[in-house]
Amino acid sequence: MKTSRKSKNTSSRSNAARRDPYRDAGVNIEAGDAVVDWLLNTGKSKTSGSRGAKGVRRVGEIVSGIGGFAGLFRPEFKRCKDPLLVASTDGVGTKLLLGLEHNALEGLGQDLVAMCANDLYTIGARPMFFLDYYATGKLDPKQFRSVLTGIRNSCNTCSMALLGGETAELPGLYEGKHFDLAGFVVGLVDGRNHLGPQHVKAGDILYAVESSGFHSNGYSLIRKWLSRGKGRTPKSLISRILAPTRLYPEIPQLLDELGTKGFHALANITGGGISGNLPRVLPNGTTASIVPALLPTQKWMREFIDANTDSWRDVEHVFNLGAGMIAVVPKSGTARFERAAHNVGLAVHAIGDVRKGRGEAKVVYND
Known about the structure:
Number of helices: 12
Strand order of the largest sheet: 9-11-8-12-10-13
Number of strands: 13
Largest sheet: 6 strands, mixed
Oligomer: single chain
CATH superfamily of the largest domain: PurM-like, N-terminal domain
CATH architecture of the largest domain: 2-Layer Sandwich
CATH class of the largest domain: Alpha Beta
Number of domains: 2
């Protein structure tokens, strides 16, 4: 049974003296209603999509959101000659377990939004609205509020609406306060001017856009490595490992300024690492040549990897190595790209180039 954020079930209040067999089974409808009330009565402006990060333009407004059976959103198509809707869904994975162990939950809300929205940014799209799914064994209002605060604040950063969601209390499927998260985002891009492999050519330059850390990938391996320390890992390192996934709402601003003639493609470096994700935005017959020493791998990240494996190459397909995104830029436009990235607050580093190859696109590392 689910406690919905789309509609409220008040049948449990009809007779307070009557025994509630559903609650005896582990589902507390009143607790679910209480968190819905909290969500409805706090931060209304932040769920409206009316405000966002400086310079980030919104592309529509809520007509009706949280409280109904479904949310209504009015998109803004006026600036698009060929409006295309873009959709993505994702979760946070086993980073949730580490967050629970260290009571660091608000950052998980940002992880969820970023894992969805960042995929849209690879096309140059602007997110319009977001929905979440929160499932737990026993609803803990404090835990819920921490996670949803992170979700709501991150939606505001991206200037998109938190249109709705679902809270499921599922005793027997999840133990105690364990929970899982999923997110769903819909955005907008102009079909005449979107990033992708169709623009990429041999000679293009590759730029790593700095990550905030491991983002939300590889945490099954990270937790295994941490278990070797038997609880002796410094809190400062745990804090860095749990740093929320960076949001990249600056990307559409770059595309507005540069266009696809000055900014060809963008890869989100998630599960699969650089070698598993960068080829997805390269045409066949090309090879991405990368110099490992030029990757902006944070010192603490490199030390953590080196302490747990013989070579970074062993886990290259797991982690982003400090490159949260990789942009593909024409060689003739590198100075302009670097200047534009600096102006919107993105730290970028040239790490290699695109070369002619054979067959499917691939990544090679050149020491």
